[in-house]
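Figure S7 source data.
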Amino acid sequence: MPSLPTLSGLPGLAVLRAMGRDRSLLAGLAAMRKHLGNAFQIILPGFKPIVLVGPENNRHILHTHRQDFLWRTESDPVSRLLRNGLLVADGELHDCLRNVMEPTLLRGPVHGHIPAFWSCTASITESWTEDGVVDMLVEMRKAALLILMETVFAVDFRPEMERLWLPVIRSVEYIAPGAWLLWPGMPRPGYKKDIAALDEYLFRIIRERRVSYAETGELGDDLLSVLVGHQENGEGMDDDLIRDQLMTMVVAGHDTSTALLAWALYLLGCHPDALSQAQAEARSVLTNDPPTPEQLRELTYLDTVLKETLRLYPPLPVGNRRAAHDTEVGGYPVPQDNRVMFPIYLTHRDPALWDDPESFCPARFDRSQGASAPPAFAYIPFGGGSRNCVGATFAQVEAKAVLGKVLRDFDLELLPGKVHPHMATTLEPRPGVKMRVRKRSETKDS
Ligand code: HEM
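Tokens for the predicted protoporphyrin IX containing FE complex:
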């Protein structure tokens, strides 16, 4: 069996140059892919991932041969933070957790959350001063965090926002790619205090829900209540296992949405015609009241903007797995335990799959204009197969409601300044998305 291509000599310098120029690891991966093709291996001390790009490789990893790949790597910070959370669980535990949690995130329950998506957005935008400048990366994080807590956990996070802002950000930062990839066991004491503060809060809301259940005998249909009330063979879930699911939701359920919302506003800010069209649509369809699901469905242009944003800047730009045993992909050997990466970002920008892949073109998703669906596994912002994003419906309805409200109520202007995609835990627009916001007179006092 041939061995995987690796980088050496002059192409290696070209990759370093690309990374330096764009200040992005993704630029390095793109340069490697250009020189080495859709399957290659990175060889660094202690870090030798196999990188697989394109729909066929995605299908292999996520669908047809998914049993050959595991999620969890015990020494990764993500496993240490999320412990037995759905995202990092494999096998039977994964499937059991998914069966319990998924029903709370299906279309019906998500539609019930639309008024909360709307009111949480309002409580963030009402602090925007007339003609003020806000950083949408920060503002959208506040909105996404409030929304997640209010809908998925049924708690009011407003009183805690200031105190827990840093603990949440630091917990998310803890799992961002970094030097630990090269030195898996490296000590990282600087995060302990903040993770403990977030843990303390999560254990508190679990306790409070148990007490209220004991007192009233009633539980809501939010995820926290479902976990507290879940019984299997006469046994409930313990606090630790519930904490792991809550921590998973805090990380996976708000940081990704933050990135999508901030990038969408950035792209609209860069494309004034698209911004005008999205605003005109929001203003013709939406009123002061929380929208109905049908009204959100009518935001068809915004829908194409969101899809195109997820293509250009998938919040999870690189998927990761570990080979469960010695296996092969595309005729290349993959040894047991080897890390396997599938860069969604590169597939989404592959010129063989997309016309003019680097440009922002919402029309490529406009079926009413004859756009055809991308080939299977060519467009996977929410992953694919049985481990696809359990919050995909939630995220898409949420994004339409939040952006619909912002676009309806405000005129927006992107301030000049270079923004680059930074591979933190999600793909973030750094250093931020600074926008001037002006409340529209027609919607003032509404
Ligand atoms: C724009 C927003 C979002 C994007 C782009 C996104 C993307 C993804 C992707 C690509 C995966 C698969 C990862 C893999 O295969 O390794 C995933 C899994 C997951 N996502 Fe999301 N996500 C988003 C929002 C959310 C939300 C709002 C929630 C929760 C409310 C959520 C919870 C999860 C969980 C728990 C998993 C693990 C599922 C499993 O392993 O069964 N995500 N997400």
